[in-house]
Q: What sequence folds into this?
């Protein structure tokens, strides 16, 4: 087990380089569209891929990972909605603790069940403090986790929760409005959290437009995660990725 990916993510943060990750849901896997979509992501210089979903009803995960791996050597990180979404062919896994919720299964129960398999898998483990934030609608992530998201305008609660996550030893904080959220996380909340924690900050959920992605990156997100944007409008990924990467140079030139 190495620490290659988290080391690279930390390095990018140190250098002020903003990154974009594309989330691919195994349940929406189609062999023909995946090739086209990965090609679009590669020409847009997407930095890495996340694979996972709140609920997986078809056993496409191993095949999807193999397929993506045959198309690109970009890092592929599992973003599991449950303990069934572990596959040793990926490069790493975000070991999520839902610290915005109070569901013991998502704070420790699932981790205990999956730990022996994770050890055997050889995957790089990236302990992640995961916060669900209200994105204007009840998402699959909220329902499946049986947890109440942090209110949209409560940056102080998000900030204290993220700080607790860092103190507990998490390597990443992930603020998520949930896939398909009506609105993305408020940049003010991202700014408050990014000033509070030193570890890399992932922000996702409801990001559709390049200017939204750029605003969140400038507010302090180190990695912007998009999923629905690729499914709904693949051609847009190039503009989104460009906006995120451009935000790096804005910060550099300050
Ligand atoms: C969800 O942050 C991701 O965990 C992606 O959300 O599908 O809304 O882009 P979207």
A:
């Amino acid at each position: 087990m190495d620490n290659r990916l988290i080391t690279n993510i930390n390095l990018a943060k140190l250098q002020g380089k903003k990154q974009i990750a594309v989330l691919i849901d195994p349940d929406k896997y189609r062999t023909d569209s995946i090739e086209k979509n990965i090609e679009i992501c590669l020409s847009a210089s997407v930095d890495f891929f996340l694979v996972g979903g709140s609920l997986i009803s078809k056993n496409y995960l191993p095949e999807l990972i193999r397929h993506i791996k045959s198309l690109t050597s970009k890092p592929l990180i599992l973003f599991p909605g449950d303990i069934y979404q572990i596959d040793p062919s990926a490069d790493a896994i975000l070991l999520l603790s839902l610290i915005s919720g109070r569901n013991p299964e998502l704070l420790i129960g699932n981790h205990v069940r999956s730990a022996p398999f994770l050890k055997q898998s050889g995957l790089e483990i990236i302990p992640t403090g995961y916060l669900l934030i209200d994105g204007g609608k009840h998402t699959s992530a909220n329902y499946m986790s049986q947890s109440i998201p942090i209110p949209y305008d409560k940056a102080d609660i998000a900030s204290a929760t993220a700080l607790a996550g860092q103190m507990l030893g998490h390597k990443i904080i992930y603020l998520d409005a949930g896939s398909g959220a009506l609105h993305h996380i408020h940049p003010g909340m991202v700014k408050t959290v990014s000033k509070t924690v030193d570890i890399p900050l992932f922000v996702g959920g409801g990001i559709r437009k390049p200017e939204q992605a750029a605003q969140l990156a400038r507010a302090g997100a180190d990695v912007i995660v998009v999923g629905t944007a690729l499914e709904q409008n693949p051609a847009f990924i190039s503009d989104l990725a460009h906006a995120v990467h451009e935000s790096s140079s804005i910060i550099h030139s300050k």
